[in-house]
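Severity: low
Component: inverse-folding endpoint
Summary: output formatting inconsistent between runs
Steps to reproduce: submit the following structure tokens with default settings.
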């Protein structure tokens, strides 16, 4: 299941767009404008982060612990998450 959420828009509309990909216990967020293409996600968990596919993120394809571990390695904070048990990762304020 994929759910796109548009954050406040303006002159930099593309920079503020955050996509959400939801499963029963986790929501993965992705902010394309932050991505540095370090490939920590696709190399770390290719069954969840499927380069070249649409949608390219499948949060139901791995455990929450596996997803959290890989997303925590994202150097740009382009990827984040919210878990059912209260874990949260968001990009730092610019």
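Observed output (run 2 of 3):
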């Amino acid at each position: 299941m994929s759910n796109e959420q548009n954050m406040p828009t303006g002159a930099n509309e593309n920079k503020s767009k955050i996509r959400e990909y939801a499963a029963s216990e986790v929501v993965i967020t992705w902010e394309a404008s932050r991505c540095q293409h370090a490939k920590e996600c696709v190399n770390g968990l290719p069954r969840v982060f499927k380069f070249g596919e649409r949608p390219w993120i499948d949060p139901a394809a791995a455990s929450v612990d596996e997803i959290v571990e890989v997303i925590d390695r994202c150097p740009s904070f382009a990827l984040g998450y919210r878990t059912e048990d209260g874990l949260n990762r968001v990009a730092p304020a610019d």
